[in-house]
């Protein structure tokens, strides 16, 4: 058994939306296929992966550096001890040979994308849904019912508060119980009017989370905290620069409600620094590390171990990104849920066909691998790459 090829293509996932920091007019994503020589039911086993939205495609790093490290490794060195499947941890080690520590800029995105495809292949070879395989290996019970929330509320040319309300109404009609909107891309007064418009629309049918996308300096962060704390928000997300742990720690004095951050921390070491120095509170705050941006599930397992050692439950993790990889991790390893973007970043985001949100949760279908084969628009694009 061996990996015979790794293919990458960089695809546009552009849209006219913007948050407080970036627009998505030139956004791209890498799509990766890990091709094995294993055949199941007459079809070659191919694992697929892609990087989460918000960071660009990583074709250069994948094609010029990481692909060859896997293909040039002794195939036996990438197998598990039983010799009946690939080993994601050994493949990860092969990818990361001759890489210095620290500086987790874009390398972590490239590795996370390949890692997703590796786990897809491994669970397909085992003929199990990834979430069941993860739960079995950990010795825990899988829970196929996963909390999801609707991330939207972007700034958009010509979008007024009635369009924002309609957008949120649409999420409620689709079964969501928590919705999220962007803040920090307008004046604080205008953002307050936007928040009040949404709260008037959703009333007690749902809760609202707000996301500043790392935009605020301390002074602005505090001004917003004082404005926001009068509302019953689900969380106040990514307030300041993702690496400014002192700013994050200062917020706890001024904002008694839940806060969330972590989508732009790309290693378990950075995640550990957030827990050590960021003042995050394990009884109410949320962690949003996204494996598809941060060296993949092999690294995410290290992050979960670190959280356990520092007294955090995995149920405080609700990853960024809205992809099926994190749905599997949530269902298999007892995370608190997953982000979802009902109308954005297609065909990569979202759920397998026929999966519906009910009372803010989805039920994972029993598909081998990550479940991409159950999403017809996505698997069509994936199979175009190699099959
Ligand atoms: Mg965010």
From TrEMBL:
The active site is at residues 182, 320. Keywords: Magnesium, Metal-binding. InterPro entries: D-tartrate_dehydratase (IPR034611), DgoD-like (IPR034593), Enolase-like_C_sf (IPR036849), Enolase-like_N (IPR029017), Enolase_C-like (IPR029065), Mandelate_racemase_C (IPR013342). Pfam families: MR_MLE_C. Residues 161-256 form the Mandelate racemase/muconate lactonizing enzyme C-terminal domain. Gene3D superfamilies: Enolase-like C-terminal domain, Enolase-like, N-terminal domain. CDD domains: MR_like_1. The record marks 53, 180, 339 as: Transition state stabilizer. Its cofactor is Mg(2+). Coiled coil: none annotated. The record marks 290 as: Increases basicity of active site His. Mg(2+) binds at residues 211, 237, 263. Binds 1 Mg(2+) ion per subunit. GO terms for molecular function: D(-)-tartrate dehydratase activity; metal ion binding. Substrate binds at residues 19, 53, 100, 154, 180, 237, 263, 320. PANTHER family: D(-)-TARTRATE DEHYDRATASE (PTHR48080:SF5), D-GALACTONATE DEHYDRATASE-RELATED (PTHR48080). This is Mandelate racemase. It comes from Thioclava indica.
